[in-house]
Amino acid sequence: MEDLGSDSGVQSQPDKGKGTADDEDGATQDYGDTYDFDDDDEFFGMDDSGFEPVVSSRDQRKPWEVEYHVHDAHGLHDKQEAMINRLVPVLSVSKDITTILLRNSQWKEESLVERYLSDPDKTIRDAGMFPNAPAPELKTGNEDFTCEICYCDGPEEVYLGLGCGHAFCTDCYVTYLTGKVLEGMSWRIRCPGAKCKALVGEQAARLLLANEPKILERYEDNLTRSFVNDLDSFTWCPAPNCEYGIECHVPKSAWATIVPTVHCRCGKAFCFGCNMDDHMPAPCFLVEKWLQKCKDDSETSNWLKANTKECTKCKATIEKNGGCNHMTCRKCAHEFCWVCMGPWTEHQQAYYQCNRYNEDSSKNARDSISKSRALLERYLHYYSRFSNHERSAKLARRLLTTTETNMEQMQRNSSMSWIEVQFLSAAVDMLSACRATLKWSYVLAYYMESDNQKLIFENNQSDLEMATETLNELVENPVHERTIEEAKRLIIDKTQYVKTRWETLLRDTAQGLQENRWKFQD
Amino acid sequence: MSMVPKRIMKEVERLTKDPVPGISAEPQEGNIRYFSVLMDGPDSSPYEGGHFRLELFLPEEYPMSPPKVRFLTKMYHPNIDKLGRICLDILKDKWSPALQIRTVLLSIQALLSAPNPDDPLANDVAEHWKSDEKAAIQTAREWTQKHAK
Ligand SMILES: [Zn+2]
Ligand SMILES: [Zn+2]
Ligand SMILES: [Zn+2]
Ligand SMILES: [Zn+2]
Ligand SMILES: [Zn+2]
Ligand SMILES: [Zn+2]
């Protein structure tokens, strides 16, 4: 029993967010915090060619897990610095110019170097900088200086000039920069001169804003923001108020066969590809397709679902009353399943067989109704299971609250310590993860063409579904006719079993997608 | 009243001492940020012979923000709408604090000589301009005769 605490932290455990075990081991760390790309020289080539998506000998990364890195603001800053500093000697121009060139080319180092080597001066000028301009500095003591913004003049004025020849007093410059920074701009801020395309540059901006720490901080934030936005291999965690940036080098071209799920340090699990909540095992393109379909079909299907079913035998119109899927025709007494329209006799032992939508008997039953209707029914079959698990996932979150009460009760009614009752919250975490996976598994199934490969998938799905329901029941009512110790052992065993089923489904789909094992239809 | 920046004083001084040909701009008494402008229609444009009234206001942030300018005389022009608002890049995102009232007025005058129906503010006028330029120019002439004399 003492293994429970660590069990909740093994890397294939679903995201828990606030769990403390999470920070010490588990997914976040194994391909996150401890592994650093920075000192890896091959890293820059990875986007274009060297990416190895799933096959990796490192650690115990599971086939469905991808490599990624969670950065805080400092980490993101260091990341930029590292990329800039390694390019300075390659281009052998100032750091200021190198920085602008990198930003201006969306950090695409290779193509930048190529362009630069073929025409350095033009590349620098096109980016709004000047090849041989001296480093920016604050000047004073110039009899001829007049600020074109405020018209102040004389040798006592302090001013700054850029390579374009425009010069303005520091007061005007600071006001100007402040306005632009508050608009969210950073390196794209141009010289205030009329129609001038020169960029102010980071060195000049830092010089000018030296006495405005708040604005300077915003400026640096804006730089980081544009860095993360401009790079394909970076994204912001979509959780509200979360400021972590995620780095992941699974290229866009691989998103059809890999679901790049990442776990932010704040606890959010989301897809690096589409920024939606984790949608394993369905790849992004099917998720997008499905959500669009749900949007398009919601009205028709709701109407059909609510109003029109007919008996598969005698075609009499049948109303669904109550939540039960077991339908009995009032006219001919035929019994059938509301979801798959198949005869109910096949549902009695195993309700979950209904996930086999393509059973011959169901098929035949549906052949008797119109084809378009059947298509809609097919959609509804998957949709109802999809939304069922979605609802259950929400309930599972609520279950967490009751679970905490249960845990307190258990502590009072037994000799167990707080740590020893953690198995309950571990079970709820597992349930949440399974609900999410099951939900999206129906999207995958909806688009799969029927063949033996699909059958294998559906077996895994069915196994996970049954195991999940059993665990759900146990967690909702843990000490029902049991001692606490019995309940604990039972839940731990079930959680472990569910986890195995969950991993089996994820492993199988991750590998199947890689091998193009399934054909997808529209 | 708050102190008037040196910049505005200087601009006003220069505008009075060395006015732009065909344009007069005078600050209102008691409000040096509000200008009444009278602009002659450029030669060999549909606005030739017209005298157009505009108002120009310098917001608190000027020159970090552009002046607000609007025609008061009715215009038939694809980049000027019914309310007299003007579609001109330097009055929006291409504004630079180094630009002045003078350069703004000159740019507006240039816009009268060279309407740009591809970047319209008044869509119906722009459509007219694109489908039958001759007729559109004729309408602009008539409006000039009717409203800008
Ligand atoms: Zn100044
Ligand atoms: Zn300049
Ligand atoms: Zn986050
Ligand atoms: Zn996605
Ligand atoms: Zn019947
Ligand atoms: Zn069924």
TrEMBL record, chain A:
UniProt keyword terms in alphabetical order: Metal-binding, Repeat, Transferase, Ubl conjugation pathway, Zinc, Zinc-finger
Pfam families, sorted: Ariadne, IBR, IBR_1, UBA_ARI1
Positions of region (Disordered): 1-42
Signal is among the record's keywords: no
Enzyme class: transferase
Keyword Ribonucleoprotein part of the UniProt annotation: no
EC number: 2.3.2.31
Reactions mediated catalytically: [E2 ubiquitin-conjugating enzyme]-S-ubiquitinyl-L-cysteine + [acceptor protein]-L-lysine = [E2 ubiquitin-conjugating enzyme]-L-cysteine + [acceptor protein]-N(6)-ubiquitinyl-L-lysine
Comp. bias intervals (Acidic residues): 22-42
UniProt-listed InterPro entries: Ariadne, ARIH1-like_UBL, E3_UB_ligase_RBR, IBR_dom, TRIAD_supradom, Znf_RING, Znf_RING/FYVE/PHD, Znf_RING_CS
Gene Ontology BP term (one): protein ubiquitination
Domain of life: Eukaryota
Limits of the RING-type domain: 143-358, 147-192
GO MF annotations in UniProt: ubiquitin protein ligase activity; zinc ion binding
Signal peptide (residue range): none
Protein name: RBR-type E3 ubiquitin transferase
Organism: Linderina pennispora
TrEMBL record, chain B:
SUPFAM superfamilies according to UniProt: UBC-like
Entry keyword annotation includes Glycoprotein: no
EC number: 2.3.2.23
Active site: C87
Top EC class of this enzyme: transferase
Domain UBC core: 3-149
Top-level lineage group: Eukaryota
PROSITE patterns tied to this protein: UBC_1, UBC_2
Pfam families according to UniProt: UQ_con
MF terms (GO), sorted A to Z: ATP binding; ubiquitin conjugating enzyme activity
Keyword list, A-Z: ATP-binding, Nucleotide-binding, Transferase, Ubl conjugation pathway
Similarity remark: Belongs to the ubiquitin-conjugating enzyme family.
The protein's name: E2 ubiquitin-conjugating enzyme
